[in-house]
Amino acid sequence: MTVDGVPNVRVCVEPVREGATVRAQNVLGSLDRDLLNVVDRIGGPFTPVGFYYRTMLRPRRLWPQYERVLRNLAGLGCLDKSGRRSGRYDVEHRRADVLVIGGGEAGVAAARAAAENSVGSVVLVDERAAPHIDGVETLAPARAIGFYEGGLVPVDAGNVLYRFRAGKVVVATGTVEQPLLFPGNDLVGVLLPQAVRRLVDDWALKPGDRGVIVSADGAGLDVVEQLRRAGVEIVEVVDLRESLPSTLAANGRRGRLESVTIEGRELACDLLVMSGGRQPAYSLLAQAGARVEYDARRGIFVPVDLPANVEAAGSVTETEPAAAPPPPSFDGGDAKGRCFVCICEDVTEKDVKRALAEGFDSLELAKRYTTVTMGPCQGRLCHLPSIRLYARETGSDEGAIGTTTARPPWAPVSLGLLAGRGLEPAKRTAIHHRHVELGATMMWTGAWRRPHSYGDAAGEARHVHEALGLIDVSTLGKLLVEGPDAAAFLELLYPNRFADMKVGRVRYGVLGSDAGRIMDDGTIGRIADDRFYVTTTSTGADTVIEWFDWWNAVWGMDVEVVNLTGALAAVNVAGPRSRELLGRLTDVDVSNEGIAYLDTKEAHVAGVPCLILRIGFVGELGYELHFASPYGEYLWDTLLERGKDLGIRPFGLEPQRILRLEKMHIIVGQDTDSESNVLEAGMPWIAKLDKDDFVGKWALEHVQARGFREQLVGFEMANGVVPAEGGQIVLDGRSAGRVTSARMSPHLGKAIGMAWVRPQLAVEDARIEIKVDGRLEAARVRLKPFFDPKGERLRA
Amino acid sequence: MRDIFRTRRMWRRRGELKPRYDVVVIGGGSHGLATAYYLAKNHGITNVAVLEKSYIGSGAAGRNTTIIRANYRTPEGAEFYRSSVELYEHLSLDLDFNLLFSQQGHLTLAHSDRAMITMAERAEVNQLLGIDSRLVYNDETARLCPELNLSDDVTWPILGALYHPPGGIIRHDAVVWGLARGADRRGVEIHPYTEVTGIERSNGRVTGVKTTRGEIACDTVISATAGWSTLIGDMAGVPLPITTHILQAFVTEPLKPFLHVIIVSSQMHVYISQTDRGEFLIGAEIEPYTTYRGTSTFPFLEYSARHTLELFPQLESAKVLRQWTGLCDISPDYSPILGLTEVDGFLISCGWGTYGFKAAPIVGTTLAELVATGRTPQLIAPFTLERFYTDTLVSELAAAAVSH
Amino acid sequence: MTGLDFVSLDRAVAGDGFEPRLSSPLCRALEGSDRVLDLSFLGKIEVRGDVDAINGDLEVVRITPQRALVLCAPEEAAALRDRLPGMVIDMTAALAGLELHGVRTLRRLTDLDLDALPAVGRVADVPCLVLRNGDSFRLFFPQEYGHSVAEVVLDVLKGLE
Ligand SMILES: Cc1cc2nc3c(=O)[nH]c(=O)nc-3n(C[C@H](O)[C@H](O)[C@H](O)COP(=O)(O)OP(=O)(O)OC[C@H]3O[C@@H](n4cnc5c(N)ncnc54)[C@H](O)[C@@H]3O)c2cc1C
User: Phi and psi at residue A236, in whole multiples of 5°?
Assistant: First the structure.
């Protein structure tokens, strides 16, 4: 088998094909070749199902090349590699008292009846067209694409997706004509009656010159007149209800029908209309919860036990046998053509027999092995014929074999329509526009966009140490915890102690899960006896609020939790000159006595009432101002303006990260992961294990007892190279820890970072080795903050 | 070549159950069949029955999106999955059955700098273990996947990616069938449509199982029941820290080759590959609720389509053909639970969540070794059930949640 | 200052060269559009506790049996905060608001049953309280989503033109 010899197969076909046309095409038996067809030419005249599982195994190194060939053979349509989204899509949520699916006779009658009985709003949808009916809203062309949870019926109307929820759904989807199985049934010129009707009625095309009709029901015979009118000579009509030929085959050349052989008689023709009866289109009903049962008398599957609020109407419910169940397949005598069971997937009768003989003897296994029903027609044309075949070949009956699951969607639906408008909701702070105007590079933090920096991260960081910086921290989660039990509630939630906290003070807290893992951190200020102001991380806010609400419900304490995240904007004014600026804008005493480190106070700043929190995430004297968000731009502008002579400069998230790292302040989720706890993270003072109880206490006690497995420490690089965050600490060639944060500190002129290391390495000055770009670089462990270890700047 | 024209049965017709087997494997998915296969192949233990309540591969094995990769986050995890990928690379030849393993490469996208750190960490861990895995930036990503929309004009711009060249996809059914055939040929009995309804114990030891087709005596029972594991655990009196969720997926109509690498975006909860059949195979993360009800939902299609088009706007006109769901057994640390339990003779393979298919061969070899030798192989020692009592979890949250 | 002034819009004071003014992501996004009415600075006072005890000629939207939102003119907010029963918290700054018209427009924005309003659900993919008065609808949602909601609303209106 050579690879090079394979022709460059198949021109690309249109990727988007109208459903109706697809079916007609497939019945016509398109000249397209797909995978197995083409491989036939490689493998010889006949390549059995599943052949690729058995071939191209050796030599193993050649498989990628074989695979490329296989890939190139598969697929139907071609995508434009440089395509952009072009369509405009909308979604419309609809309710209706009655939704009728299918605009045939039965559907129209059902809609009309509903309208006449004035049951409320009535909507009818049809794939093709629907007539005007008084009191009924019609949508066409529009296709119901499935029946989903809660009775949701999405309807594809081109560029609008209607999501219907109806009081009652009437399914009038009719029946699907079934093909017959005989050799040559894929030839161009072999048609189903429906295709004939379309060709003649809709497109005024003459489907052939000489026609033969073989039909198991009236449908095939009904087109005889039509064909005659179109000028087709009818050569022979075989009504299978009256006589069952012992052999039947279609013969052709180059894929086109040339003659039909019936019981040895060869009839020249270029058109063969076949009809194997009709199968109710029950998929929507099955998705809605109906059971599907085999009706042996009629030889078809029928929906039964419809759920409440779902009705079937018209031929989907027909009870009278209209057709004689045809044989699962016809013997073709010595005909050469192949007998197709599934045209989309190129599966022949022989393939099915072979699959059964190989042991794929349940319907589901055989389906997966042969891929029958897995093509674009979604089994409409091959499901029933294949089950008939399995039944005959396994000596059982169709009822015992049953059907496969009716998987949605019922009709193929484009990703464009499903996607609708390509927007995801994103959050913006009240000061967002100012950042953009100042030329900040924006980055994502959760659903927020925040300034990474205003162009000079290192400079911005240095400036906070030397003069004055301003950062928008509005994205912090902000909660009010209020009520007689507020202090007790926080005592139970956090490992920290709060009962002893004085009004007007702030404390750093770390929230733990019930397994003692670090969930979030933030500051907690007591602003009244029974009122606490709690901040959370930007990305953790929603989780923390749920967590608070959950425990509040569980404990039933007298506490209210209010989410003020969006209500308040917040900025941090930080740097040695921050006190001077604040003093200019407020009447309250801003001296170290007036507002000490870790104090909180309400005051008007530039006329806006603010909650002032004196905290030091960035390591310098600083004040967080929290205030009603609509004043965001105003206060930002005012701070920049009134601080101009003090050299005020906005700084972004990146400089803030450098600054906090110099202080060894952790970022939850970066320096910690889902398994970290406060003890090993180097913050034992947080956990008041002498408290009666708090969430996760047992787990921290357990950690205490079992001893530490790893510890979070600082490190300083020997040679000034900055390792990657996520870099590995290596000991004897194996991982002995990981870097969680690393930066060059412009103020200290050193490469610093934080890392989780084995406990034996968690001692001041221990030498560790970190892998950087494939080399090992030396570093020293540091346990105290790199900058201002005593916190003198913060308290200044 | 000749051979492909001969019709040979893949496995024997299902026979009667024997009264006694040395080993009973519950679950005819990839793990159950792999365990049976390696018991017979590597250790000559062939008096083995695989009991499956439906047809083989009816569970997650036949529904998964078949991503196979080794670029996990923890050294324990990465080492374990690496061994599995290596076994997969040779499995087609080993089974003499082409599993269509397509090692097209695997790109996990990062849309935030936090994600970049996670990717960097995984790359570093992987490289220490000799796994081909590295961080790439957009210039290289554009070379690896020119079709990917790398512009800023989207909700979540791409900052970089973790590239893992050996990552690939495979034909899931072929894996199931190949293993089943291999096991069957070595004497293992496979019993589809045979549901286990109880596990007999005496003095803390397994003595047999009850099934819908009668009772069987045995000393060793291996539960490889993935999404159903807690039900089997309860039968054996072994509570498992597992919840069962559904995971959904869909395929489009087959299209000409377009995408030649697997794309994963955890941020957008979507991953996309194009199979050898030409279909785009698209999946998401688990549904947040626990259930055994395998109904597909429409919102899943909507948000997956939206996220897919952010990455590949060219797919706007591609059509969804089929959607389905499968069960996932989620463990607290997103790592599996493997091996011995407090009940003698009752072994488990569970906690596979959304990522267990890639582990089938290594689970099979290690569990078979454990049964044969009575000793827990080093590779799976970190994944014992005991770790939930000793608090030695193996956190793969950052690498396994949506990455499969 | 007393207690929670920093949450309210009406406690700012002009003077001393300071002139506090209001803005929001929603106002920004709606600049230049006259299709919708911005209700962001309408007074919205949340009451928790015995909401049945709320009296007077007020527009009260019950969210749960223990929670209600009282809508008022901005200048009435301060007085209301003082006299309403239970725990009272000013949500004016937290919630952005929009008024728009047309059932069709709403159908393209939310799957809420428009005949069963007021209700809380999702509008343009964000959590939202929807009130109805005939053909006119008021939406209240977290203000930080203001620009996202505006973008979708304006696009929907364009689609219906
Ligand atoms: C949509 C989806 C996508 C996924 N994508 C990936 C992926 O890309 N990569 C990856 O590595 N993993 C993926 N997974 C996960 C993976 O499929 C599973 O972790 C893995 O298949 C589980 O092992 P299994 O094959 O043995 O399980 P299963 O195939 O579920 O086997 C368990 C079997 O146990 C049987 N059983 C249950 N109860 C009983 C009983 N009482 N008696 C007898 N038999 C019983 C079931 O019928 C079932 O056949 C995905 C999963 C899903 C659902």
Answer: -160, 145
Chain B environment of A426 (Cβ under 8 Å) = 155
Q: How far apart are the CA of B67 and the centre of ligand 1, in A?
A: 14
Same-domain status, A781 and A712:
yes
A82 domain-assigned: no
| HEC profile of B158-206 | CCEEEEECCCEECCHHHHHHHHHHHHHHCCCEEECCCCEEEEEEECCEE
Would you say residue A672 lies in a domain?
no
Domain boundary among A45, A73, A101: A73
Structure confidence at residue B394 (pLDDT): 84
Overall number of domains in chain B: 2
Looking at B269, B299, B330, the residue that finishes a domain is B330
Mean pLDDT (chain A) is 88
Inter-chain CB proximity B98 and A357 less than 8 Å = no
Chain B residue at shortest CA distance from A742? B117
Tell whether A130 is covered by a domain: yes
- Between CA A710 and CA A715 the distance in angstroms is 15
Q: What is the DSSP string of B221-275?
A: EEE--GGGHHHHHHHHT-----EEEEEEEEEE--BSS---SEEEETTTTEEEEE-
Q: Is B303 helix (H, G, I), strand (E, B) or coil?
A: helix
Query: Domain-by-domain residue ranges, chain C?
Result: 26-39+95-161, 43-91
Does the residue B134 lie in any domain? yes
Same domain as B289, residue B231: no
- Domain range enclosing B191: 20-64+173-241+333-400
- Please confirm whether the linkage preceding A59 is cis (ω < 30° from 0): yes
Could you tell me which of A736, A544, A579 has the C-alpha nearest to residue B128?
Answer: A736
Over residues A513-524, the mean pLDDT reads 95
- In sequence order, the β-bridge partners of residue A354 are none
Whether residues A790 and A716 fall in one domain: yes
Residue A330 lies in a domain: no
Q: Are A166 and A221 found together in one domain?
A: no
User: Does position A27 have pLDDT exceeding 50, yes or no?
Assistant: no
| B neighbour chains, 3+ CB pairs within 8 Å | A
Contact A164, A153 (CB under 8 A): yes
Check if B229 has its Cβ closer than 6 Å to any atom of ligand 1: no
Pairing of strands A441-445, A413-414: unpaired
Instruction: Name which of A509, A523, A623, A611 is nearest A567 in CA terms.
Output: A611
Tell me which chains share at least 3 CB pairs under 8 Å with chain A: B, C
* pLDDT at position B191: 98
Nearest C-alpha neighbor of A762 from the set A679, A691, A672, A650: A679
Closest CA to B227 of B80, B316, B341, B354: B354
* Domain with A246 in it: 177-277
Tokens 């365990």 — which residue?
Answer: B35
C-beta of residue C142 within 8 angstroms of C-beta of residue C24: no
pLDDT tens, residue by residue, A138-179: 999 999 999 998 899 999 999 999 999 999 999 999 888 899
Domain count, chain A: 7
Q: What is the tens place of the pLDDT at every residue in A28-40?
A: 333 333 333 333 3
d(CA A676, CA B119): 19
**pTM listed for this prediction:** 0.92
The CATH number of C26-39+95-161 is 3.30.1360.120
